[in-house]
Write a structure and sequence with these properties.
heterodimer; A: 822 residues; alpha/beta; Helicase, Ruva Protein, domain 3; 13-stranded parallel sheet; five-stranded parallel sheet; B: 624 residues; Rossmann fold; two-stranded antiparallel ribbon; 25 helices; elongated; disordered C terminus; hydrolase activity (chain B); Lipase-like PAD4 (chain B); nucleus (chain B); Fungal_lipase-type (chain B)
């Protein structure tokens, strides 16, 4: 008995394997039909063997086996027919192929339905071996199914209907709701159409956006568009590449599609010759590559001679020249989509709590996937649940299990494929308040301190994150390279920030690497208080509150903390006493988001920050230094943004070199009460970067600025009341970058500017009063790059004759209104 | 590369074109009739659609002699006979003309026959040519000036052209510029023969002996009067030579010293004619120079005789265009421009061997360059303006966002107090400064005469300066008061207002005057920008009055303060009622709204406590 069963199992597997090869061959090429016949013939005896093996089989099993052998015999006949049918009798071939399919179905039905039952029955008899085999069986069943599926596409020839039908099914409800909110989609379609259909010079066009923003929907809609279909005469291939694709197979598929032979052997080798010559004759073809994850894959999938539309979360700036970035839904569209998934109708039902709905929608920030998933998980829930969901969303926590699974995990794939360091950097982004622009320098300061990288690498990481659509770099019109890093800001989609929070808030609170407050609250989280008996291991601590007084803080121990971010919005702020217990603190970022500058109290806590290396202060009033016993021995970078500095820096007795003996980068930005720099600044022998930007009150610079012998970068951007540069500037031997852009009242460059032998770049755009250049400009032997207005560019062109390596860049101004709603 | 190398020299072509029309010959025909038959008067005629009026070159010697070379302001003619004078730039000399010439014209103007004939001509013709020989030329110029001013005031489409033959200079440089500014330069065509001394005479200082001049004029008069009658009066050769040397000497000095050193200045465009043809020059400095150069090639006797030979010249140049021209020189010029210059020299009868050739060439070049530079500058400036427009647009957006914000303050107060303390405000301030720089540059170019004379009459500039002023001046005021400058320098209106705004005010007022009489629309909505750009400065002053009123105890001062406050309140109410203010003025927390609230409170307080003590207050109709 056992032996029979063993055989039945064994044979079934064998059968399957054979069937696989048979089916493959049968549809791929006719020659294989002969092979099929012999295979089937070989099978027949095996079944016979089972039937008549001498072991008694139950009659029903006997019957079933008979049926199987009957089917197989039919298959044999079919194969014979294939052989004998004329090669050109397409209809007949197709008909036969259909029959073949039927045969396969029969076989698979038998295998799927009956064999397991057989085996199950046998399991009773032999549990040990059977379990293992059962697994194998199931796996192979699935494989078979898969191949059947792919085969039906390959053999059917009418795959596009198939794909479209599938797409339709998937997106049916989505479209229903998009009927009245199709504006964004139509706009996107129009823009992509412009790039794909109208512009012949673009071979590769991309659609980008963060996960769940409707890229694939857009691409599918695009393929269905009548204009597109007629332009490509229905020659559109839609391929899903996914994260781990079989590139060779995809290549063959595309190639086959291009040359019109869809039944190429999967192992077909595409030769250079093919690529070079054959594709030239091909007609217009559109290949849509959905869900592309890596550049190397994409590179291999690009064939000349056909248009390629790449749909991806990432930007591939080196390959794709024209891209359409999927726009997020507008408020109305978002509302309609949300209502559709939450209430099954396109507008808000009367019974719903309008406030809650609006809050929920605004938390989703126009991301279709978020709207869809959150809407669905709130469907038919009580109002209380809604309220708690809003609350959770605001904290960046998942609303429900499907929300977490569908949305976060969907998005998390983008993060998981990042290199570890970049991934950590991404998670750090959760430490900043939502919907705020983060200055690039803040991030770089932080990353330099905690990830042990240098500024350039930090910038590279940021660019990578931006290329992966995980952050958005908001550049001022002038920004381009590292020189102008202070003009770059970072914004992040809120859902991605939630993701970062979600990923970093795992594990017990004392062990977390980042201790963050997801949103502004009036007091510190109670959870922190509860666990404050234990030291926290956090490396990054971020606090976001309103006004804080001494009583609002409680003692916490942060032996590992290296970065402290204090976000608040108020006029007064008591610095946390626990800064005392942060012996390793290296970077401190204090940002005030209210409209007036805040007065900091407990400033004396600075005296304990012996290891502090970088300091960022925004919208605070800097106290008089002489009153505060703070000497920051290790501080090398200090940035004062939108601060009131008159009581500190403008005092003549302030001794900067004593306070900050190692300071090498000083940035003073948007401080309009800065009238004059203290003369002691000239004694800061370690200073390498000095940026005094957007200081509308700055009238003059200290005359002996030339004593800053290590100064390399001097930025005096947008200081409109500055009328002249001190001559001392010409003594700055190591100066290599001078930025005086938008110093609109500056009347001339210093006469001896030629002495700056290492000066590499000058940015003097929009210095409308500078109408001549000093004669010594021709002796700037290291000068390579000048940024200026058109009027002045002619003067530089004259200089250029003496310096052929000079690159003169005339800036194009571009204007936007982002600055209005900061 | 020389910028001129690619263009054409047109002076000669223009002159040939003019000569090919019947205008010159007809004019001269009438002039000679006037000279012979209408001594001291004028004749008129109608040829087709064109009316001609010619003033005789022979005028009462006594009357013209008496006040020769005495410049008087054109306004002294009274009755607003001539163009409005308010268009002068500050610091510019008033428009002046020779008193005797003005007198001559006025005496003719008041005569009834003149009025009759002119109105008859104006009725029947489509264009009028005013012409005159010698002194008749200046009368013709003045007549044209009057006619143009008159026609402009009644906005008539009638065309006027003034063609003079050997006319002496009429007025100063301001006159010349004023004519350019009105775009009338092309309405004056002064035909000057190669050596004629008459048009050059007034360049010399008035040290010539009267007797000499007298005999010269007499000689000319006799010759004009009876051209076929032989020479009854003869001039002595030494007198001629002395006169010639004298004028040449002074012209030489002038040519070196440049513009502005002479009392008189040529006006309109000049047509220099010679035996060979003619050229047109319209730049005053080049005209002066050219006159000098051509006189150098003449002789004492030719300089006197040429004054009488316009008939020959006109006759010749009228047929000249039909002759085939060819280059005499062996070497052909390289560019079309050079060819044009050579042709022009040829037309002037200067051949390449003469010593003045080089100078004459330079002179033609200069005329072209100077004629073109201001136009180029204008165009350049227009391009620059387009680059500055976005800055203004950004400020407009800022205004709009302030209007929408919850502070309810309006952009004046938002900016003054730097309410949001954000990068945006820094940007607005930056834009404000950039725009101010742009307009200051423009004003300084205007001051240095680098732009065309009618620059400030072009709608483009008037309108853009006006909208700039309306939008940005409130920000300037806000900065002024926000930074406490009024405590240092005094109030904005008197001590802080930039000159550019005053100039823009003037431009706008003039434009309003020009378009006066058109239908006035009533606003149905609040203006997008407050039409009085100094409104906020007035509010700030009123604020101070109100504050000091409360602390003041001196009755007379109180009275004065109250009068001021009252006047402002009325003014502001009127503005608001006519909707000339933008809605930011009326925002709930704007300085103005707060002021109105304070003012109301003070008023009711006063009424309650001491009503009789403030007579003006009661009389002012402020009792509810």
């Amino acid at each position: 008995m056992a032996v029979t069963d063993l055989f039945a199992g064994e044979i079934a597997t064998e059968l399957l394997k054979l069937m696989v090869t048979i089916t493959k061959k049968s549809c791929l090429c006719k020659e294989s039909a002969e092979q099929l016949i012999s295979d089937l013939q070989a099978l027949q005896p095996i079944i016979h063997e089972i039937k008549y093996s001498g072991v008694e089989l139950p009659s029903d099993r006997q019957f079933q086996l008979d049926r199987l052998s009957e089917t197989l015999r039919g298959g044999l006949e079919l194969a014979n027919k294939i052989i004998h049918s004329s090669r050109w009798n397409m209809y007949k071939n197709f008909h036969l192929a259909k029959k073949m399919e039927k045969l396969e179905k029969n076989v698979s039905r038998f295998l799927q339905c009956l064999v397991p039952v057989h085996v199950l029955a046998d399991v009773l008899h032999m549990r040990f071996e059977a379990a293992e085999r059962f697994d194998r069986l199931e796996g192979s069943t699935m494989r078979l199914e898969k191949q059947l599926g792919s085969m039906s596409i390959g053999a059917g020839g009418a795959w596009i209907e198939e794909a479209a039908r599938k797409a339709e099914e998937e997106k049916k409800w989505m479209e229903d709701s998009l009927v009245n909110l199709g504006v964004g989609l139509d706009l996107g379609k129009k823009k992509v159409k412009e790039m794909v259909v109208v512009r012949d010079d673009l071979a590769v066009v991309g659609i980008f956006g963060i996960g769940g923003s409707g890229k694939t929907t857009l691409a599918r809609e695009f393929c269905k568009d009548h204009q597109v279909r007629s332009h490509f005469r229905d020659r559109i291939l839609f391929l899903t590449v996914s994260q781990s694709p079989n590139v060779d197979q995809l290549r063959v598929k595309i190639w086959g599609y291009i040359i019109g032979n869809e039944h190429l052997n999967p192992n077909y080798q595409i030769s250079e010759y093919n690529l070079r010559y054959e594709c030239k004759v091909a007609t217009r073809t559109l290949v849509v590559l959905d869900d592309v994850w890596s550049q190397s894959v994409l590179e291999r999938l690009i064939f000349p001679g056909c248009k390629i539309l790449v749909v991806s979360r990432f930007k591939f700036p080196t390959i794709i020249k024209a891209t359409y970035e999927v726009e997020l839904l507008t408020q109305n569209e978002a509302m309609a989509l949300f209502c559709h998934s939450a209430f099954g109708q396109n507008s808000m039902p009367l019974h719903a709590n309008e406030n809650l709905v609006k809050q929920t929608v605004s938390e989703c920030k126009g991301l279709p996937l978020a709207l869809k998933v959150i809407g669905a998980s709130l469907r038919d829930q009580s109002e209380l649940f809604w309220a708690s969901a809003v609350n959770r969303l605001a904290r960046g926590e998942p609303v429900s299990e499907p929300h977490e699974r569908q949305l976060f995990e969907h998005l998390a794939t983008s993060v998981e494929c990042l290199p570890p360091k970049v991934r950590e950097c991404f998670l750090d982004l959760g430490s900043f308040p939502e919907d705020k622009k983060i200055p690039l320098d803040v991030l770089i300061n932080m990353w330099v301190e905690i990830h042990d990288i240098d500024g350039i690498e930090a910038f590279a990481i940021l660019v990578e994150l931006s290329n992966k659509n995980l952050v958005t770099l908001v550049k001022d019109e002038r920004a381009g390279d590292m020189d102008s890093s202070c003009l770059v800001f970072i914004t992040q989609h809120d859902v991605l920030r939630d993701l970062a929070l979600h990923l970093s808030n795992r594990g017990p609170i004392n062990r977390r690497r980042r201790l963050l407050m997801p949103r502004r609250e009036t007091e510190l989280p109670r959870e922190w208080d509860r666990n404050s008996s234990q030291p926290f291991d956090a490396q990054i601590v971020s606090v976001h509150t309103g006004e804080m007084e001494e009583m609002d803080w409680f003692s916490m121990d942060f032996p590992m903390a290296e970065v402290l971010i204090l976000n608040f919005s108020s006029n007064k702020y008591f610095l946390p006493p626990f800064m005392d217990s942060m012996p390793k603190l290296r970077a401190l970022i204090i940002m005030n988001y209210s409209t007036s500058s805040a007065i900091l109290e407990n400033f004396s806590v600075f005296s304990s920050l012996a290891n502090l290396r970088s300091l960022w202060l925004e919208k605070v009033t800097i106290p008089q230094f002489s009153k505060v016993p703070m000497i920051l021995k290790r501080l090398w970078k200090m940035s004062l943004v939108l601060c009131k500095v008159s009581s500190s820096l403008c005092q003549s007795d302030v001794d900067l070199p004593q306070l900050f003996p190692r300071l090498s980068e000083l940035t003073i930005d948007h401080c309009d009460d800065l009238v004059e720099l203290p003369s002691s600044i000239c004694r800061m022998s370690k200073l390498e970067h000095l940026s005094i930007t957007n200081c509308h009150g700055l009238c003059q610079l200290p005359a002996d600025l030339g004593k800053l012998e290590k100064l390399q970068i001097l930025r005096l951007y947008a200081c409109p009341t500055l009328k002249m540069l001190p001559h001392g500037i010409c003594e700055l031997f190591w100066l290599n970058y001078l930025d005086i852009a938008q110093c609109v009242n500056l009347s001339c460059l210093p006469e001896d500017i030629g002495k700056l032998q290492t000066l590499r770049k000058i940015d003097m755009s929009e210095c409308s009063q500078i109408r001549s250049l000093p004669n010594s400009a021709t002796s700037l032997k290291s000068l390579r790059h000048v940024v200026c207005d058109e009027e002045v560019s002619w003067l530089w062109r004259d200089v250029e004759k003496a310096m052929p390596e000079l690159h003169i860049q005339v800036v194009d101004k571009c204007f936007n209104l982002d600055w209005l709603n900061e | 590369m020389d910028a001129e190398a690619s263009s054409f020299e047109t002076s000669e072509v223009l002159a040939t074109f003019l000569a090919s029309t019947p205008l010159l010959s007809e004019s001269w025909r009438l002039c000679s009739i006037a000279n012979t038959t209408a001594r001291g008067s004028f004749v008129s005629d109608l040829v087709g659609d064109v009316g001609y009026i010619a003033f005789s070159g022979i005028q009462m010697a006594g009357s013209s002699e008496r006040s020769c070379r005495n410049l008087v302001p054109l306004e002294s003619a009274g009755n607003n006979l001539f163009l409005q004078q308010n268009r002068l730039n500050e610091g510019e000399e008033p428009v002046k003309v020779d008193e005797g010439m003005l007198h001559l014209f006025l005496s003719m103007y008041v005569s009834s026959s003149f009025q009759e004939q002119i109105s008859a001509l104006m009725e029947r013709s489509k264009s009028i040519i005013v012409t005159g020989h010698s002194i008749g030329g200046t009368t013709a110029s003045l007549c044209t000036l009057w006619l143009l001013s008159y026609l402009q005031s009644v906005s008539s489409p009638l065309q006027v052209l003034c063609i003079t033959f050997g006319s002496p200079l009429l007025g100063n440089g301001s006159l010349s510029r004023a004519i350019l500014r009105e775009r009338w330069g092309g309405n004056f065509c002064q035909v000057v023969s190669k050596h004629d001394i008459m048009p050059r005479l007034l360049f010399a200082p008035p040290t010539l002996s009267l007797a000499q001049l007298h005999s010269l004029l007499q000689y000319w008069h006799f010759s004009m009067d009876s051209p076929h009658f032989g020479k009854l009066v003869q001039l002595r050769d030494e007198d001629k030579a002395e006169l010639f040397r004298f004028v040449l000497f002074h012209m030489e000095g002038l040519a070196h010293a440049g513009e502005g050193t002479s009392l008189f200045c040529p006006l309109g465009s000049y047509l220099f004619c010679s035996e060979e043809g003619a050229v047109c020059v319209d730049n005053a400095a080049s005209v002066t120079k050219m006159m000098h150069l051509l006189l150098m090639t003449g002789s004492p006797s030719s300089s006197i005789e040429d004054h009488l030979r316009y008939g020959d010249y006109v006759g010749k140049s009228s047929v000249q265009f039909m002759n085939q021209r060819s280059f005499m020189q062996a070497d052909l010029p390289e560019t079309s421009y050079e060819a044009g210059v050579a042709l022009a020299l040829q037309s002037l009868g200067i051949d390449s061997q003469q010593s003045v050739t080089g100078a004459a060439k330079d002179c033609l070049r200069m005329a072209r360059r100077m004629g073109r530079t201001p136009n180029l500058k204008n165009a350049e400036l227009a391009v620059r303006l387009s680059k500055y427009v976005p800055y203004r647009a950004e400020i407009e957006w800022y205004k709009a966002s302030c209007d929408k914000s919850d502070d309810n303050m309006g952009y004046y107060d938002c900016f003054k107090l730097r309410v949001s303390n954000s990068r945006g405000e820094y940007r607005v301030n930056m834009n404000r400064i950039k725009l101010a720089n742009f307009w200051n540059d423009l004003i300084s170019m205007l001051d240095n005469n680098q732009l065309t004379y009618d620059f400030d009459r072009r709608d483009k500039w008037i309108n853009s300066s006006h909208s700039y002023k309306l939008l940005v001046e409130p920000l300037d005021i806000a900065e002024y008061y926000g930074k406490g400058m009024h405590r240092v320098k005094g109030h904005y209106l008197k001590y802080g207002r930039e000159r550019r705004y005053e100039i823009f005010d003037r431009w706008w007022k003039e434009k309003e005057e020009r378009s006066r009489g058109r239908e006035e629309y009533k606003r149905s909505k609040f203006a997008s920008l407050t039409q009085d750009s100094c409104f906020w400065a007035r509010v700030e002053e009123a604020r101070e009055w109100l504050d000091s009123f409360r602390s003041e105890s001196d009755m007379t001062k109180l009275d004065l303060l109250w009068k001021n406050i009252d006047a402002f309140a009325k003014y502001a109410t009127k503005l608001v009622d006519s909707r000339e203010v933008s809605k930011d003025v009326l925002a709930k927390n704007s300085s103005y709204s707060l002021w109105v609230k304070d003012y109301g409170a003070l008023k009711s307080e006063l009424l309650q406590h001491f009503p009789p003590q403030f007579p003006s207050f009661v009389e002012g109709g402020m009792v509810p």
